[in-house]
Amino acid sequence: MTSPTPDALLGPADIRELAAALGVRPTKQRGQNFVIDANTVRRIVRTAEVRPDDVVVEVGPGLGSLTLALLEAADRVTAVEIDDVLAAALPATVAARMPGRAERFALVHSDAMHVTELPGPAPTALVANLPYNVAVPVLLHMLETFPSIERTLVMVQSEVADRLAAAPGSKVYGVPSVKANWYAEVKRAGAIGRNVFWPAPNVDSGLVSLVRRTEPPKTTASRREVFAVVDAAFAQRRKTLRAALAGWAGSAAAAEAALVAAGVSPQARGESLTVEEFARIAEHATSKEQGQQ
Question: Does residue 83 have a known ligand-binding role?
């Protein structure tokens, strides 16, 4: 592995200079906040436990702050970028700042939600500063689409980090918590201050670690069927599951029958259930005509 130059990573002046040269201003529409602190991106890479044999996929690389830090540590990095200008510029930034690693970098110019394959070897890790407005759907799409991803570390809005890592019974436990837990063991992995971004966001950020389960919860129901139960349960989270799942099951009586068969109280609420319990409910659906497939 070729050692990068000491100043290979981007600092605040580098970021602003690059942005000015490209005519780029971070946009709220795409949730763009560029990391301008080299120590922060190195900390993210350390926390992600990126190894020399890892093939890392990064979503939303922006100007390349985290990309360069990942290239220092991983075998290969593939970045997925939707922005036309940023996607066009990133390979040149990598080549200029880490010429010895440039052949280990690939760029996919696409919306991450539409990506179904990546060039080169299968990714083993996902590390990303996710745009806050699409963080959860992008994370779930990548985990579903690329089962080879073993470890994930994402930086998201602190509130989203809390929801992803929440345990049953928590006030913020909900759809993201359950669906993320279908794929992985999830935990908060640190906080990130606002001053390491340009522009500084008006919200705090958090790191979330996801280590993929060796296998999803044991169930005869499909992921889609389990997720339909989860969506229905939290669509009306103040209601008991008997009432909340009535539409999904075809009637309140059918919902109650499925809940009782699954060993779950019909008076319980979605926020108290584990992903395994949701899977059991999906198995015991009595209606074949579930409207939310």
Answer: no
